[in-house]
TrEMBL record:
PANTHER family: POLYISOPRENYL-TEICHOIC ACID--PEPTIDOGLYCAN TEICHOIC ACID TRANSFERASE TAGU (PTHR33392)
Annotated keywords: Membrane, Transmembrane, Transmembrane helix
Family to which the UniProt record says this protein belongs: Belongs to the LytR/CpsA/Psr (LCP) family.
Segments of skewed composition (Low complexity): 470-479, 495-508
Name of the featured protein: Transcriptional regulator
Bias (Pro residues) ranges: 480-494
Lineage, broadest ranks: Bacteria, Bacillati, Actinomycetota, Actinomycetes, Micrococcales
Segments crossing the lipid bilayer: 37-56, 63-85, 97-121, 133-159
A UniProt-annotated Pfam family: LytR_cpsA_psr
Region annotated Disordered, chain positions: 456-508
Residue ranges annotated for the Cell envelope-related transcriptional attenuator domain, each copy included: 200-381
């Protein structure tokens, strides 16, 4: 029995014909090799892993492509989520746990993309390129690696900066729920200076935001408001059932220190008993339930403004940068500078003085300027500004802001803040120009509650204000010879919350002239010339 060996085709013993210049560049011309190099770089840039499929290790390419398609799917899902339910997407980036996962994924993608680029360089074989093209291709690869992997790593860095700021500023806890369809937050600004005992908030503003539309309103409470009220369910009701009325020292901004030093036990679960007491006082005074607070250390406020790149406002009138109070009596030395009228971008130092200065003007001018600074900052918080200055803003915020707002709900509030930019900001001041100057000393809280309700629930534009109808006069037979009566004048309704027009800034007034008045101690002239420095608007 014989066995015949299988026939082996001669063709199977021949070496492969290397006619594919993409996978086998040895047989290609120099221009073809250059085109191949750029083609592989572009594939790695737009479809990481594709270069390996067509010219390198296909197994490695398939793994890279799976990662690429997964990332594409996640990006498409994120875009769809941003369109359908933006709050959920923002919560993913602001929640401490999910943001940490995003940071890890971004760093892994940055490293993986860099590895793919280096593998592509190996496939390109720079030694087979002309010397000039070799340097050009290598340089382009480095640039593309910086733009891709570098951008992903920088994104992870920014998210980590925000994550650190969020964990430093905000608290962990259950989500807040809106009350009557609104979120109400107390925003305080103050500091414990060397000349003060404890922290006293000089700026007290309640921000109320519609939970659906984002329509926002601010209610400014002057620091010298007396007899601040508390609701029966407040821990302070038993101490001050008639309100904070223990004498002339019991103005509302003293309450923070009073509770911190004397009644902290009434708020055993509050991280800041003084802030919790101020929430109760502001809520009882305005007839609202305050759900959270934000406390800004005004001593570091300038750092936050500088991180934002300054704040642009239309300064209404001259504002003094007060000199030192050397005797502690409120009699300051002449100003060290002046903030001039007109549209300008204030740096941190000048923005802080603009918000705090109250020399030669009523307390309420300062309240108006503080509201103006807040509105200007809100207007400037566009995505481009926040993204380009995010690290500085986050670092500054962690140093100067504290809050009891839940960190897990921050994304929802960021979404509301974005919605609020689409509406005008409604304002109310518990003092001039909305009430007379003595009102904070003798407040009528029923009137305040009604004004707050009107502010937060304005009549629809189509509704006409109801007017009392005069009783009909008895019918009198018409006398043909009598002249026709003149029509009665139609009353023009004037909104009670409208601020009176401030006197226009005199063009002949200069910083030098005002400084000389201050040196001469001519307070009467200064009160007249600075009366309009509360009128301002975002620039």
């Amino acid at each position: 029995m014989s066995f015949s060996s299988p026939k082996v085709s001669r063709a199977s013993n021949r070496p492969p014909v290397l006619t594919n210049p993409v996978r086998y560049p040895e047989s290609a011309s120099a221009p073809a090799r250059s085109k191949r190099a750029w083609f592989l770089l572009l594939l790695t840039l737009f479809v990481p892993g594709a270069a390996q499929i067509v010219a390198g290790n296909k197994r490695f390419g398939r793994l890279a492509l799976r990662c690429t398609f997964t990332v594409w799917a996640l990006v498409i899902a994120a875009v769809a989520l941003a369109l359908v339910h933006r709050e959920t997407l923002l919560n993913l980036f602001t929640n401490p746990l999910s943001s940490l996962a995003i940071i890890v994924v971004l760093l892994a993608l940055a490293l993986g993309w860099a590895i793919v680029f280096l593998n592509t360089l190996k496939i390109i074989r720079p030694s087979m390129l002309a010397p000039g093209m070799r340097a050009l291709v290598s340089g382009a690869l480095v640039v593309l690696m910086v733009l891709t992997s570098g951008s992903l790593a920088y994104g992870a860095f920014l998210i980590n900066s925000g994550r650190n700021a969020i964990t430093s500023i905000f608290q962990s806890g259950p989500d807040m729920v809106p009350v009557d369809g609104r979120y109400n937050f107390l925003v305080m600004g103050g500091d414990a200076g060397a000349d003060r005992t404890g922290r006293r908030p000089d700026s007290i503003i309640v921000v109320s935001i519609d939970a659906k539309t984002g329509q926002a309103a601010t209610m400014s409470i002057p620091r010298n408001l007396q007899n601040a009220q508390f609701s029966p369910d407040s821990p302070l009701w038993g101490v001050y059932p008639e309100g904070y009325n223990c004498g002339d020292d019991c103005i509302i901004n003293f309450l923070y220190t009073d509770v911190t030093n004397n009644h902290a036990g009434l708020y055993p679960n509050a991280p800041d008993p003084g802030a919790a007491a101020m929430m109760d006082a502001a809520g009882g005074t305005l007839g609202l339930q305050i759900q959270g607070y934000v406390l800004v250390d005004m001593a570091g406020f300038s750092t936050l403004i500088d991180a934002l790149g300054g704040v642009k406002v239309n300064v209404g009138g001259w504002v003094p940068i007060s000199g030192d109070d050397v005797n502690g009596t409120g009699d300051h030395l002449p100003p060290t500078g002046w903030i001039a009228p007109g549209v300008q971008t204030l740096n941190g130092y000048h923005a802080l003085w603009y918000a705090r200065s109250r020399q030669w003007v009523p307390e309420y001018n300062r309240s108006q300027r503080q509201q103006c600074i807040q509105a200007a900052m809100l207007a400037q918080m566009d995505p481009a500004t926040v993204l380009t200055k995010f690290n500085g803003i986050a670092a500054a915020g962690a140093k100067v802001i504290e809050s009891d707002i839940p960190a897990g709900q921050l994304g929802s509030f960021v979404s509301l803040a974005l919605k609020s930019k689409e509406h005008s900001l409604a304002r109310l001041t518990i003092g001039p120009p909305d009430f007379d100057q003595d009102f904070p000393t003798y407040p009528d809280f029923d009137v305040i509650h009604e004004r707050v309700k009107t502010l937060l629930n304005p009549p629809a534009p189509s509704e006409k204000p109801k007017t009392e109808e005069a009783p009909a006069a008895p019918a009198v037979p018409a006398d043909p010879a009598a002249p026709a009566p003149e029509p009665a004048p139609v009353p023009v309704p004037v909104p009670t919350s409208a601020a009176p027009e401030a006197p226009a800034a005199r063009p002949d007034v200069s910083a030098e002239y005002l400084q000389q008045l201050a040196i001469n101690n001519d307070e009467a002239a200064l009160f007249t010339l600075l009366a309009n420095n509360g009128s301002c608007s975002p620039g």
